[in-house]
């Protein structure tokens, strides 16, 4: 028995935001952003669009490709670090928007490794025969994190000049603000009792919370109240990141977990047809590629177009590769990700 991908799809926020847009509101440049991250543009949602909206839009595309309707889905797994609300999770909200039956909806929060974790959870549910047809979603609206005072200018709807105070505030978060984008992606997984070759094969996942504060949002239930004027003033509602530490973690742990997972199956890097890494930073992915000795034609990056969309990055890249014909039936894929927590892991799939 295997869990097999039957359909995939993704959507992005309504507004294309090139790097040059940030030059209007903070001390940065297109060159500065490209050199440090590889990112050229990203998409932000329109006012009123939520994470569950992006998840629902992507799910409709994936369900159509899979040839299934709302009545066929019997479980939802929703990976996100940017839910519509503090609670409830976005899975049940999306379930209602899609017109699904009163099926279980499970939200998980493993940030940038959310999709890899969600794959393992989904595979386990299908193999346990809790579900037959499962909808897995990774979706994020990061833009609400950003403490920008002039969204019309960011979205290209106006061309206003910030005050000196506003420009200083925006510049204070530029190392994070320029990295993220808004998007949603989905795949439909089905349990196939007869399949022995195609589908999800194996996973290796890890977590280490000893350095959680190297990449986290300080505000939250560790404080009373969990949000206050002081928290906002200190920008503690915005992600805090030690970029150098995260880089070192990624270029160490991602190659380690790939070697370990492949080793369990007697596989070499050259036997993997396609590597799809989480798209956090192109420089990280280039370093991991070099460490593993992956040939250029066996790795796919699209962070240039979308920025870091956290739980959506891997399924977006996967869907693009499937639709373009880059991935062919029977190809062996390796998904790899690392993110806040810290969580990291890899998964093997024969498409």
CATH top level class name of the largest domain? Alpha Beta
Distance between the amino and carboxyl termini: 15 Å
Strand order of the largest sheet: 1-7-6-4-5
- Identify the CATH architecture of the largest domain: 3-Layer(aba) Sandwich
Write down the CATH topology of the largest domain.
Peroxisomal Thiolase, Chain A, domain 1
User: Mean pLDDT, rounded to whole units?
Assistant: 97
Instruction: Give the helix proportion (percent range).
Output: 25-40%
Total DSSP helices: 13
Task: Tell me the count of domains.
Answer: 2
Uncertain regions spanning at least 5 consecutive residues: none
- Overall structural class, as computed from helix and strand content, comes to alpha/beta
- Structural shape: globular
What letter string, H or E per element, gives the SSE order?
EEHHEHEHEHEHHHEEEHEHEHEHHEE
List how many beta strands DSSP finds. 14
C-alpha Rg, in Å? Answer: 20 Å
Largest sheet: 5 strands, mixed
CATH H-level superfamily of the largest domain:
Thiolase/Chalcone synthase
Strand content: 15-25%
